[in-house]
Structures are given as structure tokens and as C-alpha cells.
Amino acid sequence: MKLKSFFLACLLALSFFIAGLFCTTIHASQTTSEAISNRSDYTYVRVDVDGVPWIFVYDDKGNLIMTYPEE
User: Fold this and answer.
1) 37 in Cβ contact with 46 (< 8 Å)
2) Residue 6: other Cβ atoms inside 10 A
3) pLDDT at 19
4) Is the pTM of this model over 0.70?
């Protein structure tokens, strides 16, 4: 009887674990972007992340150089 109870407890725990994996929801925040300057070397883009404006700086090849919050 103990082996049967142990097996059922493990099966129940496994089912809760699998259900938790499938029920996990990721909430992404709404972002908007606006190019504010495009010089020959760098592109400055204003991005609103959760209502806070950030500046993203890209080089001429499209690589992200730095980010900082707009003051």
C-alpha cells in the first residue's frame, strides 16, 4: 500500500509541475520607438519602456552602443 501511495503522490506532483510549465504566462511591456537623430556615425532612437523614455544609440552598422534614460 505504501508503494502505491508513493507512486500516486509522485504522479500528482509531476502533473502539477507539468501544468505549471504550460500555464506560465509572460507579460511583455508595450514599447514604442522614434528615431530622433541620424548622424553619419550614430543613430539615436527614443524608446518608451513602461512609460519611461530611453535613448538607444546605434553605430552605422546597426550595433547597439549604449542605452540611457532620457532626462
Assistant:
1) no
2) 10
3) 65
4) no
Q: Which helix (H) or strand (E) holds 8?
A: helix 2-23
- In our burial notation (b when 16+ CB lie closer than 10 A, e otherwise), range 30-59 reads eeeeeeeeeeeeebebeeeeeeeebbbebe
- Tally the C-alpha atoms within 13 A of residue 28's C-alpha that lie toward its C-beta: 3
| Long-range CB pairs of 50-55, under 8 A, 24+ apart, other chains included | none
pLDDT band at 33 (very low <50, low <70, confident <90, very high): low
Query: What average pLDDT does range 24-51 have in this prediction?
Result: 66
Q: Which residues pair with 49 in a beta bridge?
A: 31, 52
DSSP letter string, 37-54: EE-SSEEEEEEEETTEEE
